[in-house]
Write a structure and sequence with these properties.
This protein has a two-stranded antiparallel ribbon. The protein has a two-stranded antiparallel sheet with strand order 3-4. The longest helix is centred in the middle third of the chain and has 30 residues, at 165-194. It is mainly alpha-helical. The protein has 9 helices and 4 strands; from the N terminus they run E-E-E-E-H-H-H-H-H-H-H-H-H.
């Protein structure tokens, strides 16, 4: 027979011997069910997720989640008004406001944050393009999200002020991570009631498609500013030199088709860069 989801379900009847005098109206039925964690198909042919029993989606009520999101929206609007109207701001307040804005509007993955950080930090004149790209190369060599880059930029952005580099790093850390954490906690309160809505899942698919486009856009922008030398202090396209195109192609092909580990690709790029330096300086 078929159940309500269209999945074949077998029912086996088993005879049970009971003592005399027991009134048993039905025989015990043994029903085969899908294994825990398996997926089942809906009537429309779409895959339906099975949530493990040890995961709770109702730790925060939808009312609490709504209050959190509304409170965050109020804080964001307040910070943006202060950022726009009260100028000049102190370096610490301006740094917090810029990174708070970046942490709020970014979605789509790690590379997307890089062009925004360049716009909100380098364009302000707080960090040079050279230091920005050097820090980006270093942060890519370590595990963890690209948001950690804000810690490095925060420590450099307060140079020449009364703030210590350690305090600038803390400002950068809390400013860029706080929006995402607060939004995540607030949405978890609404997730249980929204996850089954068709319009909501369609919205998430659209957001996911847009995020892919933003990642490619971010990578292209990095390509356009990745070459820094004496004549191009603000950066120029990597395509100016065929050797950098070779390094980029080698890293991409090695990782995508030959399973080259990221640390190996990074070290290989560094060795190829040193080869270029040795040839051009002789």
């Amino acid at each position: 027979m078929r159940n309500s989801t269209g999945r074949e379900t077998s029912i086996h009847l088993r005879r049970v011997t009971v003592p005399d005098g027991w009134d048993v109206g039905v025989e015990e039925a043994e029903v085969e069910r899908p294994a825990a964690g398996a997926t089942s198909s809906t009537a429309e042919g779409e895959s339906e997720r099975v949530i493990p029993s040890n995961i709770q989606l109702d730790l925060i009520s939808w009312k609490t989640g709504t209050y959190i999101l509304v409170g965050f929206l109020v804080s964001f609007i307040t910070i943006m008004i202060v950022r726009a109207l009260l100028k000049p701001l102190s370096r610490g307040v301006a740094l917090f406001a810029n990174l708070y804005l970046a942490g709020t509007i970014i979605f789509g993955g790690g590379p997307v944050v890089i062009p925004l950080l360049r716009a909100y930090i380098v364009a302000e004149g707080w960090v040079s393009s050279r230091d920005f790209l050097l820090g980006l190369a270093i942060i890519q060599s370590f595990p963890g999200p690209n948001f950690n880059f804000a810690v490095y930029l925060g420590s450099l952005a307060v140079a020449g002020t009364s703030l210590s580099p350690a305090l600038g790093a803390l400002i950068g850390y809390f400013a860029i991570f706080t929006p995402g954490i607060v939004i995540l906690v607030g949405v978890m309160g609404l997730w249980k009631s929204l996850r089954s809505r068709r319009w909501f899942t369609s919205l998430l698919r659209g957001v996911n498609a847009g995020a892919v486009g933003l990642v490619f856009t971010a990578v292209y922008k990095l390509w356009q500013i990745g070459y820094v030398d004496v004549d191009y202090q603000s950066g120029s396209p990597l395509g100016r030199d065929p050797w950098w195109v070779t390094i980029t192609a080698t890293s991409f092909v090695g990782g995508a088709w030959f399973g080259c580990p990221a640390p190996v690709a990074i070290l290989l790029g560094g060795v190829m860069g040193m080869i270029w330096y040795g040839i051009t300086q002789t």
